[in-house]
Glycosyltransferase family 2 protein (Roseovarius rhodophyticola), 353 residues
Amino acid sequence: MAGTPNSTWVTDTELESSAIDPTDILVVLPALNEADHIETCLHSLMRPAHWMAQCRVVVADGGSTDGTQGIVERLKETYPNLHLLDNPGRLQSAGINAAVAQLSQPHHRLLVRCDVHAIYPAGYVQALAREHARVQAASVVTAMDATGQDGFQKAAAWIVDTPLGSGGSAHRGGQKAQFVDHGHHAAFDIDWFRRIGGYDPAISHNEDAEFDVRLAQSGGRIWLTDKTRISYVMRPTLLAVWQQYWNYGRGRANTLLKHRARPRLRQLIPVLNSLLLIGSALAIPFTSLALMWPALYASVLISTSLVAAMLLRSRDGLWSGPALGAMHMAWGLGFLKRIMSPAPARNVQSQTG
């Protein structure tokens, strides 16, 4: 049954009797300065209209100054079930916790976390509710397909869903339904969410992976569904991707420090690459052999750009190498910066994004 430590598969007959009513679902979107994305995201999420109109949908805004709040207020005329919640904690983790604490009702059974940078297929929440009822896992996560309009964004979207860009993460472009240790957060059994204390409100990035660590420690299981997936809009510039992955690296290090855990091999690779490049740069004045690793890595990035240009049939693909380099270096350096920081593991503070 839902809320028990181990997931339980149900029959079709049991599925119909255990299916979650839309009125039992709380949908939360944390946001901060997302005027460019919030309207498109909400329109995609609110389908089918007759079903989604019965869900409580909350935008937890961290103090936007770009008109995000005004857009949500305007959309409330179209979607009366839409709520705007002030999130003084600013962070995504704090916003979702606040929505559960202030706007959830005793009858709510499912919490669906959404991302403003995502575009959702029609029936997304409905599909998650059905999958949760079928599998009865503590959490249901979804696969992500990166997308971008053109130029750098298009190339970054292509490379991030390859093993070079994602390290083989199951939810990045994945096709297989399976139990996983982490995935892109989607639907939670709300009792499980409350039981382990929700998100850590002090963690600015990687709060989803940190949550999954505690969920697993408590006996909860995470199911990666193949019944629905989302399109994720990549950051549009090299600088924006650099900042995003710097934060990702810092966030992952913060999670490992907090739980005294060992990083996985795919998490160590960008860190080792950054160390080798730094060491090579320092050694170049003393030996030409120090050029070997930078030359090898540069050849990988150049080859990536050429292959992407051919596969995408566009010069836009040439940006794939620089995008990959930014992801690797920013993640690795952000990780190292956090590991070497004397700050306590719970004190990494930043805005959402």
